Amino acid sequence: MLNKVTESAIDAMNHINDGATILIGGFGLAGQPAELIDALIERNAKDLTIVSNNAGNGETGLALLLKSGCVRKIICSFPRQHDSYIFDDLYRSGKIELEVVPQGTLAARMQAGGSGLGAIYTPTAYGTLLAEGKETRTIDGVNYVLEYPIKADFALIKAFKGDRWGNLTYRKAARNFGPIMAAASKHTIAQVSEVVELGALDPEHIITPGIFVHEVVCVKGDK
Amino acid sequence: MSNYTPLSVDEIAKRVAQDIEEGMYVNLGIGQPTKVADFLPKDKDIFLHSENGVLGMGPAPEEADRDGDLINAGKQYITLLKGGSYFHHGDSFAMIRGGHIDLCVLGAFEVAKNGDIANWFLGRPKDIPAVGGAMDLAVGAKKVYVIMDHVSKNGEPKIVESLNLPITGEKCVNRIYTDLAVIDITEQGLVVRDMVEGLTFNELQSKTGATLQQP
């Protein structure tokens, strides 16, 4: 009987090694898998590349991961926020590498990675600093920038309900990057608020089918 | 010098809201553009999109009803209207890049006379680059309106011949709403649609870094 439910977040981190590329869900704190990130900090793997929309808030979750010194590089769309001081200090002191990617391009590159495409052409960022040195092409009179897929070793995402096959639903705007990251990584770990019996999730309402999910961790007390 | 009063932030937002029609799908950028929501006519169905994955965004909740999973692109607490929906970032930016959003209202540091916009990065050595959805919105929305002060804090024109700051998107702005005027960017150039009472065309021109035309 296949069961993707893993007892603890710490156990789920066992496969994560130094140098891994990890997608981390969330937009700000909404959808950020805080308990999985805490476990990743405990795992203490080094030299990580993190892909996430932001670069952490305050002294929680992703910000603490950066503070732990485990992260070599972050790929994100919007690192600078009013409470991103941990990232700001690391960046200004040259202790972390930054690749800024427009938010829609970040999503599209991961979608390309998850769906087996070799690259995409996007109109976003054409003619800007973020397209410098990249191939371009004009198609039907519109200028596009060539962008390559983002594929990762792991994804840590936050969903709402999950079952033992890894099927997931999400809650409100916490869905954000979850379904895309699940598909773009070789090993996806989802934290959920509730594990339900197989069949309890309405097939019409499953947002991420279990094929994209490898481990499900139930986080108690989480909404 | 004639006697005129620049519009307040709320008055500019109200002016923009007057030009938004029933049935439009609208994205309001972070900061000043967000205020437009406060002045949308309650009797019209206008759909607010937030790029983090919300369509049919409603007003801010009461403090007791705040939900960390329900925020907008500015990471403020919001509500969802009846008929609203949630979706992932791929769908959200398909709405933007795919030309499904009728109108995006953005803030800007500078706009050039050809519609180029600079609003993501000042490019000074101390600045950390952060773009978010700005470049996707600039190129993707069917129409882009900009809200900004007519001149900078130092009195420099923010409407210019060509951009001095790093560009966000090429030739994408259709209309600029400032504290002094409403200006359309057309094939023929910058056309003044509206000015605050008491301001003369020549005074407006003197505060603008590119040639203006009267309608």
Provide the descriptors you would attach to this structure in a database record.
A: alpha/beta, eight-stranded parallel beta sheet, three-stranded antiparallel beta sheet, globular, B: 215 residues, alpha/beta, 4 helices, 13 strands, 15% helix
Radius of gyration of chain A: 18 Å
What is the SS-derived class of chain A?
Answer: alpha/beta
- Mean of pLDDT of chain B: 97
Low-confidence stretches of chain B: none
Most residues in contact: chain pair: A-B, 47 and 40 residues
Say how many strands of chain B there are. Answer: 13
Oligomer: heterodimer
Taken from the alpha-carbon principal axes, the silhouette of chain A is globular
The class by helix and strand makeup of chain B works out as: alpha/beta
What does this entry look like structurally?
The complex is a heterodimer of chains A (223) and B (215). Chain A is an alpha/beta fold. Chain A has a single domain, classed as Glutaconate Coenzyme A-transferase (3-Layer(aba) Sandwich). Chain A contains 6 helices and 14 strands. An 8-stranded parallel β-sheet of chain A has the order 1-14-12-9-2-3-4-5, with helices on both faces. In chain A, helix 5 crosses helix 6. With 215 residues, chain B is an alpha/beta fold. The chains are: A alpha/beta (223), B alpha/beta (215). Chains A and B meet through helix 4, helix 5 and helix 6 of A and helix 2 and helix 3 of B.
